[in-house]
Amino acid sequence: MSKVIGLTGGIASGKSTVSELLTAFGFKVVDADTAAREAVAKGTPGIEKVREVFGD
């Protein structure tokens, strides 16, 4: 059975460092900031929906 662990913290609290260590130990890491940027990247359906709802 897999477990999901959330890693949270303020700016410059070490989240990226801990994520790198977890990756080095073989854990799967999903970076929500990266996923969010990719979801609304230029030319994606995500950014088009944002524009549709909120305008340019």
Automatic annotation (TrEMBL):
InterPro entries: Depp_CoAkinase, P-loop_NTPase. PROSITE patterns: DPCK. GO terms for molecular function: ATP binding; dephospho-CoA kinase activity. Keywords: ATP-binding, Kinase, Nucleotide-binding, Transferase. The keyword Transferase applies. It comes from the Bacteria. It holds the Pfam family CoaE. GO terms for biological process: coenzyme A biosynthetic process. The keyword Nucleotide-binding applies. This is Dephospho-CoA kinase. It comes from Brevibacterium casei.
